[in-house]
Amino acid sequence: MRNESQFHKLLGQRYTQFEDELDKKDPSDTRQLWHTPTELFRPYYGEAIARYLVSNYEIYKDPFHDLIIYELGAGNGTLMLNVLDYIRDFHPEVYDRTQYKVIEISTALAALQASQLTASASARGHASHVEIINRSIFTWDVIVAKPCFFLALEVFDNFPHDAIRYDPITEQPHQCTVLIDDEGDFYEFYTKEIDPVADRYLRLRHAVCSRPFNHPLKRSRWLRNISARLPFAPNMTDPEYIPTSLMQFFDILRDYFPMHQLLTSDFHVFPDGAVS
Predict the structure, then answer these.
(1) How confident is the model at residue 276 (pLDDT cuts 50, 70, 90)?
(2) 11 or 160, higher pLDDT
(3) pLDDT confidence of residue 23
(4) Reduced 3-state DSSP string for the chain
């Protein structure tokens, strides 16, 4: 592709083709209107990742270690099948030593991924290479001491975040807590008591990052002092959403997958997104 404009043009065409194919089978006006690159560019997206995995495995190949791949949140199982199809077809000697392990928190999706392995004769051959682990990565407690690749594609945006607002004058952070009343309604309130996970994230960021970066306190203190004293001015900044769960995920990789190589991609923006 020549440039980003051509990519976005192709992406629009892929969306249209993808939706048209779905409508042929099951017309729907309420179906989600966004899809992951894995689905839109299948099988090529998965094949590109497979080429990367095999190339790196062969560079560092140890005769005592298999090609071990962990995928976090495999969705429909499309990437799993595309990766395994490519390795089987083009690198059969590597395929014989390939282990593909899915870590899936959703019981329904874990069942769907398992069913994909029996959906066709081609897919059935992969069953002996795949293990689907139905659990949350955040409860992981098994040390994987062997070299492995860890795939986390379009996953980080789904991790929980903590909302923090700041006093514009003192710069003191306040953490959001959600109150649920007897009728099931949700209410936000902010407290100066920061939980240990959020506090650790803020301290780490302060230690390793330098401004300017996108932050509610990025304006000068002088301007914030003036603005805070205007009539009807809010007493706290807009919220920022800090990736505390992502930090915990990296802790798990460090502690339980000490020889991993992480391969990740995610959305850099959600057009017309809503925070709820």
Answers:
(1) very low
(2) 160
(3) 60
(4) CCCHHHHHHHHHHHHHHHHHHHHHHCCCCCCCCCCCHHHHCCCHHHHHHHHHHHHHHHHCCCCCCCEEEEEECCCCCHHHHHHHHHHHHHCHHHHCCEEEEEECCCHHHHHHHHHHCCCCHHHHCCHHHEEEECCCHHHCCCCCCCCEEEEEECCHHHCCCEEEEECCCCCCEEEEEEEECCCCCEEEEEECCCCHHHHHHHHHHHHHCCCCCCCCCCCCHHHHHHHHCCCCCCCCCCCEEECHHHHHHHHHHHHHCCCEEEEEECCCCCCCCCCC
